Each structure stands twice: as structure tokens, then as C-alpha cells.
Amino acid sequence: MLSALLLSTLAMIAIVALRYLAVSGAFAVLTARVRPGYHAGLRPQIRREIGWSLASAAIFGIPAGVVAFGWDRFGWTLIYSDWTDYPLWYLPLSVFIYLFAHDTWFYWTHRLMHRPKVFRAAHAVHHASRPPTAWAAMSFHPIEALTGAVVVPVLVFIVPIHIAMLGVVLAVMTVMGVTNHMGWEMFPRWLVRSAVGGWIITASHHQLHHERYKCNYGLYFRFWDRLCKTDRGLSESFLR
Ligand SMILES: [Zn+2]
Ligand SMILES: [Zn+2]
């Protein structure tokens, strides 16, 4: 049993690490085309970003591996695989609940991590990327990585979700984590500046967090930033 648990954990670490390398790598290649020269002089930083990100992949893989093992072996979690277990309208709702719950946790832990003492200990690593690149998606100090790693493994015990919708949540998490750091906006300007764009976080919003630090703390939605008056809008220099 112990070897099966170890195997599950190692498999999850490998999946998270490979997913990071594949998605960050793909958007880094795209960045070289869209913004030629963006990575010039950033090689030492990118090496550090990859190092911290792979360490984070290990930290993310451990709780995920334990939960995956328990799901398979003991039927833990509220993850379901039969499309008829819950009404169809619950599918998109469950994705939204996961993203909103993660966003809420992230916003408040992120604000805490911007207190000077906590910042130096746990969050300076992430802000050492100036400017961040697609490789910075998981560039976190282990303490910060741990705060992120527990979110989905805890949620699957509280909120039912179809396995495919969990895949959607993880895909959104990965792609937005990468694209919000890659140094350019992939969404059309009309969408970013639309009424819907006013509630959603894309690269132009998170870039301003990396420029000014004490604002734009959210992860997916601008809800908490707008409610708590920490939203400073989009990075203008960036939307040129
Ligand atoms: Zn960031
Ligand atoms: Zn920050």
C-alpha cells in the first residue's frame, strides 16, 4: 500500500512538472515570436524561475498524489464520473465555484504575503522576476507553493465536481498562471476593456501587480480587488 501511495505521489509530481514545462515552454516560444527580444538578458532569471517552479511542482504533486491515491483506493472525495449524478447545469457552476473559491483564498493569502515580514520570507521569490516571463507561472517560494497546493485537494472533499470539470479547472489554472506572466496580452483589447473584462483577470491586470506590488492581488476575478478597493486597473504601458 505504501508503495502505491509513493507511486501515486511521484506520478502526480511528474504530471505537474511536465504540464508546467509544456505549457510555459509553448507560451515562451510564442512570446519570442510576438515580442521578439522580450527574453533578452533574462536568461539567469528564467533559470531561477524554472528551478523554483520545478520545486513547486513537487510541492503541488504531494497532496494531489495522496488524494488521487485515496480516491482510487478508498473512494475518497466528492469527484464523480457519471454525467447523470448531478444536473447538467451544475457542471459550469461547479467550475465557477472552484475558481471563485481558489480566487478568494489566493486574494487574502496574497495580501497577507505583501506584509513586509511575510513578503521577505514567502513571496519575494515570485517578485524577483522583473519582468516576469511565461516560466514564472509556478515560481514560488515553498511556503507560497504550499498555500497554493492545498486548495484543490481540499475543495474536492467539500464541493462535488465531475472529473472532466476538474480537468477544466486545472487547465484554466495552468493556462492563466502562465499567460498572466508572459509579458503580453493574448486576449483582444475590446474583450479586456469590455464589461465582462472588467471582472476577469488577464495579463494586463496581473502585470500591474508586478509593476506596483500593492494592488491587483486577485487570481481569476477582479471581484475582491474591486470590493476592497485594491484594483488599479490595467497596465497601460503593457496594452500598447
Ligand atoms: Zn505573479
Ligand atoms: Zn504579489
Which features characterize this protein?
mainly alpha; 10 helices; two-stranded parallel sheet; oxidoreductase activity; binds zinc ion; 240 residues; 62% helix; Fatty_acid_hydroxylase; 2 strands; Fatty acid hydroxylase family protein
User: Strand share of the residues?
Assistant: under 5%
Distinct small molecules bound, one entry per kind: zinc ion
Mean pLDDT across all amino acids: 96
The largest sheet is: 2 strands, parallel
Number of helices: 10
- Note poorly predicted spans: none
| Rg result | 18 Å
Give me the side-by-side strand order of the main sheet: 1-2
- Domains, number: 1
Structural shape: globular
Q: What string gives the helices and strands in order?
A: HHEHHHHEHHHH
- Strand tally is 2
Helix content: 55-70%
Category by helix and strand content: mainly alpha
N- to C-terminal separation? 56 Å
Give the SSE map:
Elements: H1 2-34, H2 43-74, E1 79-80, H3 90-113, H4 116-127, H5 142-149, H6 151-155, E2 161-162, H7 163-179, H8 189-192, H9 203-212, H10 223-227
Parallel strand pairs: 1-2
The chain binds zinc ion (ZN) (2 copies).
Walkthrough of the structure:
There is one protein chain. The chain has one domain. The protein is 62% helix and 2% strand. It has ten helices and two strands, in the order H-H-E-H-H-H-H-E-H-H-H-H. It has a two-stranded parallel sheet with strand order 1-2. The longest helix is centred in the N-terminal third of the chain and has 33 residues. 34% of the residues are buried. The mean pLDDT is 96. The site of one zinc ion (ZN) has 5 residues, from helix 4. It comes from Alteriqipengyuania lutimaris. Keywords: Membrane, Transmembrane, Transmembrane helix. This is Fatty acid hydroxylase family protein.
